[in-house]
Amino acid sequence: MPIFLICIFWLGIGLVLTYEFFALSAEQRIPHETISEITWRVSTKHPLVPFLMGILMGHFFWQSTSVYLGNCK
User: Fold this and answer.
1) Which domain holds residue 5?
2) d(Cα 17, Cα 36) in Å, to the nearest integer?
3) 3-25 and 35-45 are packed helices; what angle lies between their axes, rounded to 10 degrees?
4) Per the domain annotation, does 69 fall within a domain?
5) Which residues, at least 6 apart from 26, have a Cβ–Cβ distance to it below 8 Å?
6) What is the pLDDT of residues 13-51, one digit of tens each?
7) Predicted TM-score of the model (pTM)
8) Domains contained in the chain, number
9) Is there a domain that residue 68 lies in?
């Protein structure tokens, strides 16, 4: 994997963690803005979002034992 993609991945993780830390520390001024609360709010307004995420994760893990782990034997 190119180093550029690894750097982008870790930069994204760092940005998400920075936002979460900011949202948790500013809870008195800006309530209900953590990532989990935003996800919950979007999911209750648009039920199709968690449904599509469930389908995506189901297809991601469905063949994991036969495709990805099958070559390890």
Assistant:
1) 1-33
2) 12
3) 90
4) no
5) 33
6) 999 999 999 988 886 777 778 888 888 898 999 999 889
7) 0.59
8) 1
9) no
Residue 3, both tokens: 């180093």
Three-class DSSP labels, the chain: CCHHHHHHHHHHHHHHHHHHHHHHHCCCCCCCCCHHHHHHHHHHHCCHHHHHHHHHHHHHHHCHHHHHCHHHC
Residue 59: inside a domain: no
- Tokens matching residue 47: 């039920």
Domain assignment present for 72: no
Report residue 28: phi and psi, to 5°: -70, -40
Burial class (CB in 10 A: 0-12, 13-18, 19+), 14: exposed
